Amino acid sequence: MSDGPVVVLGDALLDVDLRGVSRRDCPDAPAPVLEGTEAWYRPGGAALAALCAGAGGREVVLVTALGGDPAAEDLAELLRGSVRLVGLPLMERTPTKTRVQANGRTVARLDEGCDGVEREARAEDVARALDGASAVLVADYGHGLTRQAPVREALAARARRVPLVWDPHPRGAVPLPGARLVTPNAAEAEVPEGEEERALRRAGELAGVWDVRSVAVTLGARGAAWSDRSGGRALVPGRPVESPADTCGAGDAFAAACAVALAEGARVPDAVRRGVASASEFVAGGGASAHTRPRPGAAVPDPRAADAAAGGAPGRPGRLVATGGCFDVLHAGHVDLLRRARALGDRLVVLLNSDASVRALKGSGRPVVGERDRARVLSALDCVDEVVVFGETTPVRALERLRPDVWVKGGDYDVEELPETPVVRRAGGEVVTVPLVPGHSTTGLITRIRGRGRDGVPAR
User: Fold this and answer.
1) Do 67 and 172 fall into the same domain?
2) Which of these is catalytic: 17, 140, 246, 252?
3) E runs forming strands in 183-237
4) Residue 53 pLDDT
């Protein structure tokens, strides 16, 4: 056990979500027209693994290849205060992946600087960055850094003294012989997630093929299967997470927790158990999306300021009202609620559950209408000023950004039991309910429609 930092070495990325609302398609191409776009940033790849490793207060150093560009500055700012960054100037451009999202759905991705490391690292620079490490985690994302001989030599020298955890990638380098633990996911190990016994056997096989001490194959929500070369094995079950909205980065959280545990002197099977628990907690906490924020240094947009500019009286911002729901198969009850909500203020924003969110809440047969069409129908109503699609099962995080003056729900909800209530009240807003129109229910409507065949004849 050492008091030194955990060093994460690998390929850091800058992930950007360019989010906008689409109410129509391009007239000359089957592509949505985005309005009101905002950019949201988060660390990706090895940078996310480093952030996970430091979540418990552990000192963490990230060693990665960067370019001399604004993306590198953005990434450094996102990690500031949590991770010490050692940026090796081996690239012209920092790897950046920009997801273009219309109404919460990714319609395109722009990759820049992702062709791989362009210059060779100096062995002395890598060795200096690894010096004093209590454990090393290699987060390989296939950009070529871990294939370089100077990097592998420095890693091998340090691994003779401290635990080395290697998180591999299909396009990455072969794990370093002698590594304490290698953590492929099921696809990388070429086994189905649901076949635990097969994963246990495969973990043992890979330990021999790679000449490493042990392998833990991660199995998503099912946990991990660990085996070592001497016949030790353990199946570590995962903790179920209710309606996970974002599982991206769970593997990084797993590997990071294993490295931290080994740095603290844990046995490898115990480190794997901690890794499984940490990955479950990471997903339950929102996954990689929980680390998303506006561009570092940029002011956070205030929707109420926009209201004032759009028509509020000088010095008095407009009253922002929000409501939310699935709105799958819009009916008269929905329209009545929306009109009542709009009457409570100067602007109405509808927070719309994404398709994945609706499925998590309503089951595999829903939604009947896709999120893009649901957003377009809602946007066409004169009482709706904006539609924002969110991917979680509750709109809590969307409300933290929006901070409405009024949050409106139907009269069948208890205000004090809503998870949104504390968030709205903390921002100075109020939560109100409005009466429902009797006899109107999406579920009932869908049931009646599905119970009839063509021409309205009841199905047999």
Assistant:
1) yes
2) 252
3) 214-218, 224-228, 233-236
4) 96
